[in-house]
Amino acid sequence: MTAFVTLEVEDAVGTIRLSRPPMNALDVAMQDQLKQVAEEAAARADVRAVVIWGGERVFAAGADIKEMQRMSYTDMVERGGALQDSFTAVARIPKPVVAAVTGYALGGGCELALCADIRIAADNAKFGQPEILLGLIPGAGGTQRLSRLVGPAKAKELIFSGRQVRADEALRIGLADQVVPAEEVYATAHAWASKLAAGPAYALRAAKEAVDRGLETDLDTGLSIERHLFAGLFATEDREIGMRSFVEEGPGKAKFR
Predict the structure, then answer these.
(1) What does residue 13 show for φ and ψ, rounded to 5 degrees?
(2) Helix, strand or coil, per DSSP, at residue 184
(3) In the structure, how many helices (H) and strands (E) does the chain have?
């Protein structure tokens, strides 16, 4: 089988590379490979942060519409869970994940970017959930993750209209975290990931889990999640290194293993 999704590891940063020319359309094979690669990145000890990268031209322009057109209701009943699972596998990587977005991130492409913790967008990037124009709604997490990120009113406006969002607007509404020239997107995302990869792995994992799980529940339960994760970090070597360095050398100088 052709490898449309690969994992390349260098200096503790794993790059999940999408490569299905010309537009990285996310067909069934690509979805399944995405899940496998995300699970590999989650499991590998030599991967401490992840970049998702679609290449210089396009992040991912959405699902493979020709493939979807052939699918019936029962086909999608059978496939819908696996579709969501492939994206959830990315969202649940217990390490910092940075999306490097150039060109189109539409439909499934936008939903994949939403699975990252940080989104670095090229100045030519365009985000959107155009499923409504096909008589559909987002089915790989868009209705849920987008509303949590930009708020329900803005998410509804984008989903109801199906319009595309340019990089400057994406930055303004919180859909992107930084906008840079297109030729600098991957380097900027990799620099973010490299910095995080050098941090305290268990504390970063706990921070991600506390935020993500807390968003799924009420405040009291979220505070309980935070309290237990906070206490658990007192059993880690990273906590010892960080506090000792702070006392002896001052803040921000710890070298975590």
Answers:
(1) -105, 125
(2) helix
(3) 11, 9
Active-site residue, 56 included: no
**Is-catalytic flag, 40?**
no
pLDDT for the residue 99: 98
Q: Which of 39, 111, 209, 216 is catalytic?
A: 111
For the question of whether the overall pTM of this predicted structure is more than 0.85, the answer is yes
Catalytic residue among 131, 237, 248, 249: 131
Phi and psi (nearest 5°) for 138?
Answer: -55, 140
Residue carrying structure tokens 């340019």: 166
Neighbours of 238 (CB within 10 A): 17
Q: How far apart are CA 94 and CA 39, in angstroms?
A: 10
Q: 18 pairs with which residues across the strands?
A: 5
The 10s digit of each residue's pLDDT in 162-220 is 999 999 999 999 999 999 999 999 999 999 999 999 999 999 999 999 999 999 999 99
Exposed, middle or buried by CB within 10 Å (0-12, 13-18, 19+), for 149? middle
